[in-house]
Amino acid sequence: MPVAIDPRPDVCERVARYPTVALVLQGGGALGGYQCGVYEGLHAAGLRPNWFAGISIGAINAAILAGNAPEDRVAALRGFWELISEPGGNFALPAMAVRGAIAAFPDETELLAWARGMSAFGALLQGQRGFFEPRLLSPFLFTDGSPQSTSFYDTTPLYATLERFVDFDRINRDDEVRLTVGATGITRGNFRYFDSAREAIGPEHIVASGALPPAFPAVEIEGEWYWDGGIVSNTPLEYILECRPHEDTLALQVDLWSARGEPPRTMMDVLERMKDIRFSSRTRHGTQMVELAQRLRTSLKELIERIPDRKLPAHLQDVLAPYLDDRVFNIVHLIYQSKTHEQQHKDYAFGRIPLREHWDSGLRDMALTLDHPAFFDLPDRDIGVATHDVHRHANG
């Protein structure tokens, strides 16, 4: 049963002390429904982030959130996900009938595993409504560098879907809510962030952030071609924590891949575990880097205090000034916990059954996190950074 979350003034009071409250969303395809449940829990508790940042499916969810009024966000997320959870193609109706019949089965592990496999196979064969559709001809028949020659699916439907669920004018005129999405430049291999605080954001930026090759085609923006940001980094956490000027920041990092897991027992387990490790690694790296930077800042401040009259050489004053602020960062992790019936295709097993399960998981994890109000306290300024994870807390 879905979890009911009541307003949490105790948590809201703590969160109000942060000038920046960022919701940071990883990429992970069909697992993105988990992020929707997390946000629904945040919203029900009365929390309103002022910065949405994401990669791939996280960029899509972030755009929907930033591109709607707070009271419309949950409905917009639900509308988008219910749409793309339906099969596409000419055989959509029969496929929906089959999936509807599966949904009536008891929630037993074997049946759920089979249902996920059917959803993943259907996505590969038919695409997903309003998201992507398979190309009629094999890309191996083309050699002209066109989208038809470099991808298996067409993402044209996604542009219209984004226009339906995202108000891009709102994103680009709203100074109180910020949107950041990341993509990978193809010709130089560089990572680029598109930030509404610095430039206008359109559907093409969101599609580029999720253009995972070789399934989806690259997207051209300002003369450069871009692929999915997850090729380089699957989270924009580092960008948020490195942006200047620094402010006290609460970063709610919603991960769809867990760095922790059991040793594989089958080849399917191996493929799943590889994805988990590959796509979760940058989150750990970002957290470790900000912890290191804060320790260095604290040590540098202490060192300067030991200098007579605290007088730095003139050539070092400007260089070190940005590193001597006392801003703090609080990183609260919400990490999707894979189910025993899920396999390596969990990120493209779209469907109403997995959507409901992922959404409810996010809602439950947000409820558990809210039950620890101290997670949201400002960190000690002598330390500078704090990290929390309700699952790690529960496991000691």
Automatic annotation (TrEMBL):
InterPro entries: Acyl_Trfase/lysoPLipase, DUF3734, NTE, PNPLA_dom. It holds the Pfam family DUF3734. Keywords: Hydrolase, Lipid degradation, Lipid metabolism. A motif (DGA/G) lies at residues 228-230. The active site is at S56 (nucleophile), D228 (proton acceptor). PROSITE patterns: PNPLA. The keyword Hydrolase applies. It comes from the Bacteria. SUPFAM superfamilies: FabD/lysophospholipase-like. The lineage of its organism: Bacteria, Pseudomonadati, Pseudomonadota, Gammaproteobacteria, Lysobacterales. GO terms for biological process: lipid catabolic process. A motif (GXSXG) lies at residues 54-58. Residues 23-241 form the PNPLA domain. The keyword Lipid metabolism applies. A motif (GXGXXG) lies at residues 27-32. GO terms for molecular function: hydrolase activity. This is Patatin-like phospholipase family protein.
